[in-house]
Amino acid sequence: MLAAAQRLRRSTDFAAAVRGGRRAGRGAVVVHLTVPATTDPSAVTSPEPARDAGAEQPSASTRAGFVVSKAVGNAVVRNRVRRRLRALTRERLAALPAGSTLVVRALPAAAEASCPRLAADLDAALTVARSPRERRSR
């Protein structure tokens, strides 16, 4: 189980992470990762819009939330997928920068995915979400 300080619970926190974060989908999961723009305490102004200022508390802990919709399966299946993702994410939170916000969304394929496959998909998605964006050539 994740500690209370490491969990996303409010819908505004989820919305801020999904809107402002980098999205990466691999296999049975999609991750939305929001990394704090600056850790400099002397910065007075924030590049974030005013409406999002209350959505995310400035904290040093990395937080995670999970979205498992009814498309994944019935309640038993959804809870099993959520428990697996929570356990896998707990092991990976320390590797993320302090103050990061992570939302892991399970796709319907996660219902039949094994734990090692979920781990591989989560690792691949986190790697892509953490890498710097590359410009596409036209």
Descriptive overview:
The chain is an alpha+beta fold and 138 residues long. 32% of the residues lie in helices and 17% in strands. The chain has three helices and four strands; from the N terminus they run αβββαβα. The protein has helices at 11-20, 75-92, 115-130, and strands at residues 22-26, 29-34, 63-68, 101-106. A four-stranded mixed beta sheet has the order 1-2-4-3. A hairpin with a 2-residue loop joins strand 1 (22-26) and strand 2 (29-34). Helix 2 (75-92) packs across helix 3 (115-130). The protein starts with 10 loop residues before the first helix and ends in an 8-residue tail after the last helix. Residues 42-58 have low confidence and may be disordered.
Name some characteristics of this structure:
4 strands; globular; 4-stranded mixed β-sheet; alpha+beta
Distance from first to last alpha carbon: 46 Å
Helix and strand string, N-terminal first? HEEEHEH
Order of the strands making up the biggest sheet: 1-2-4-3
Low-confidence stretches: 42-58
SS-derived structural category: alpha+beta
Q: List the total number of helices.
A: 3
DSSP E strands, number: 4
In angstroms, what is the radius of gyration? Answer: 15 Å
Give the overall pLDDT as a whole number: 81
Question: Considering DSSP H and I runs of 4 or more, what fraction of the residues is helical?
Answer: 25-40%
The largest sheet, given as strand count, sense and whether it forms a barrel, is:
4 strands, mixed
What share of residues are in beta strands?
Answer: 15-25%
The coarse silhouette is globular
